[in-house]
Design brief:
This protein is 53% helix and 19% strand. It is α+β, with helices and mostly antiparallel strands. Helix 1 runs antiparallel to helix 4 and helix 7 packs across helix 9. The structure holds adenosine-5'-diphosphate. The site of adenosine-5'-diphosphate has 20 residues, from helix 9 and helix 11.
Length: 480
């Protein structure tokens, strides 16, 4: 089963990790307890053996059960029910006169222990028998005059130790479920508390739709992860809002721009059809209609180009293009238009710079800029085109002696359908798509476009495109 709720997942993880930690800690504590208890028992057994060595040797007499009790009490703090002190000779025979025990079961002396003790070593063993608790046994030699004369063995039951360990386990086993229950409940509440802002965010986000894009998520301002998430989502909503606004503006402007020529077209045709007309009048109406259709066509083509560029589908037939040659040719081609508007169209430096580009699109880009220069420069003015190579880029410059672009419009003029107030007032031909197309073409060639106002009036448009090679300058400051 796949758990979908983060709250449940967090609680399960939390409880699982805590269980693991508790089990590890419990196991470690149990091991340490066993080690520490065993070590204490061995120390005490060693202590008893040390006393026996010094007391039994000189006295060489028997030990009374009361003495044994005292000794165990001295070293262990209590006298275990099952404890023994046995003396053996070096053949392993028990010395009965010394073995009067107050309690305890008979434990046979193992050969290995006897051998080790006879060789002067102390041996510790744990002896387990049926129906009785295991015994911890220490066998040690009694040395007199540098030689082993006897073997003494001290044994005590591990019952107390086992009881302590059992109690420990019972306590841990009893506490573990209670702890897990408490921690699971705590984890559930904690996860709920932590995730509550996410629920609130989800509810707020659900209310935001294209119609209510101005709504934003509440930002707590405490700088935590959720606060950052809310800020990020809000920033994303800002961008989406801007895009949607732009799209709306765009469709309104596009419809408006298309509507004007269509209305003219319709009006002219309706008027022409009101009564029978001469062939010359019909011809004139058809000419005018064709002009409007061309205008619509240009608009639709421009929109199509921008739409393709937006989704990265602007297809470029790349080939080396000499920007100087291209500008020179366009200056020549646009001379009639310039003359018609009484504008002096010339070129400055034309450094032959090769760019990897689509000649048709580059032509369209420069034509738009020269065309704008002619359009926005009063009669008697001039437009100059130049090409330079700077930092591995072709720098195309189109300068005019017009009124320039008002500072507040500099950032906007590259937006679709944007026209300055002055341009609208003059009602000159134009739809506001030209510079957006120029920018899209420049960007598609990994270039960029900027505009500056010249010190002596007029505007200078700069297009910069990476170049692939360059040669000698063609000419300088000559009229095309
Ligand atoms: P349009 O079809 O109106 O010329 P563009 O996108 O080419 O559209 O230009 C956008 C606006 O930028 C123009 O309406 C005009 O206000 C301004 N502009 C463009 N070129 C120039 C220029 N050379 N001098 C002054 N203003 C310009």
């Amino acid at each position: 089963m796949r758990v979908r709720s983060i709250r449940i997942k967090l609680t399960l993880w939390y409880t699982g990790l805590l269980t693991l930690t508790c089990l590890l800690l419990g196991g470690l504590s149990y091991g340490l307890l066993t080690y520490s208890l065993s070590r204490d028992i061995d120390y005490a057994l060693r202590g008893i053996a040390d006393v026996l060595e010094t007391t039994v040797k000189p006295r060489n007499d028997t030990m009374h059960p009361a003495e044994i009790d005292d000794m165990f009490r001295q070293f262990f703090g209590f006298s275990p029910l099952e404890r023994r002190i046995d003396f053996f000779n070096l053949t392993g025979r028990r010395q009965p006169e010394q073995n009067r025990q107050a309690s305890g079961l008979e434990i046979p002396l193992s050969n290995s222990a006897l051998e080790a003790a006879a060789g002067g070593q102390r041996v510790f063993e744990t002896i387990r028998g049926e129906n009785r608790p295991p015994m911890r046994v220490m066998t040690t030699p009694v040395i007199d005059d540098g030689r082993v004369v006897n073997v003494v063995r001290v044994a005590m039951s591990l019952e107390n130790m086992q009881e302590t360990k059992r109690r420990f386990l019972v306590i841990v086993a009893g506490l573990l479920p209670v702890m897990l229950l408490l921690s699971g409940g705590g984890g559930w509440l904690l996860a709920g508390r932590v995730l509550r802002p996410i629920d609130t965010m989800t509810r707020s986000a659900n209310k935001i739709s294209a119609e209510h894009l101005n709504q934003r998520l509440t930002v707590s301002g405490n700088g935590d992860e959720l606060d950052r998430l809310a800020r990020t989502i809000n920033a994303m909503l800002d961008r989406i809002d801007d895009s949607v606004q732009e799209m709306r503006r765009f469709s309104t402007d596009a419809s408006h721009e298309l509507q004007t020529p269509l209305t003219i077209l319709k009006g002219e045709m309706e008027v022409a059809l009101l009564k029978p007309r001469s062939p010359a009048t019909y011809q004139q109406v058809l000419h005018s209609s064709l002009e409007e259709i061309e205008r619509i066509n240009r608009l639709v083509e421009g929109l199509l180009l921008l739409a393709r560029a937006d989704v990265g589908l602007l297809k470029l037939d790349l080939e080396p293009v000499d920007m100087a040659q291209l500008c020179l040719r366009l200056c020549n081609q646009l001379q009639p238009l310039a003359r018609e508007n009484n504008i002096a169209l010339s070129h400055g430096t034309l450094a032959p710079v090769l760019v990897d580009g689509d000649e048709l699109q580059l032509q369209r880009m420069i034509t738009n800029l020269i065309d704008n220069g002619i359009k926005y420069t009063p009669a008697g003015g001039h437009v100059t085109v130049s090409v330079d190579k700077e930092d591995g880029r072709a720098l195309i410059r189109v300068q005019d002696s017009g009124a320039g672009v008002p500072t507040e419009d500099v950032r906007e003029i590259f937006n679709r359908f944007y026209r300055t107030a002055q341009a609208r007032r003059q009602n000159s031909r134009g739809s506001g798509l030209g510079l957006s197309i120029v920018r899209s073409i420049a960007l598609a060639h990994h270039g960029n476009i900027t505009v500056e106002n010249a010190a002596d009036g007029g505007s200078i448009f700069f297009v910069s495109i990476p170049c692939i090679a360059s040669g000698e300058s063609i000419s300088t400051a000559e009229h095309a």
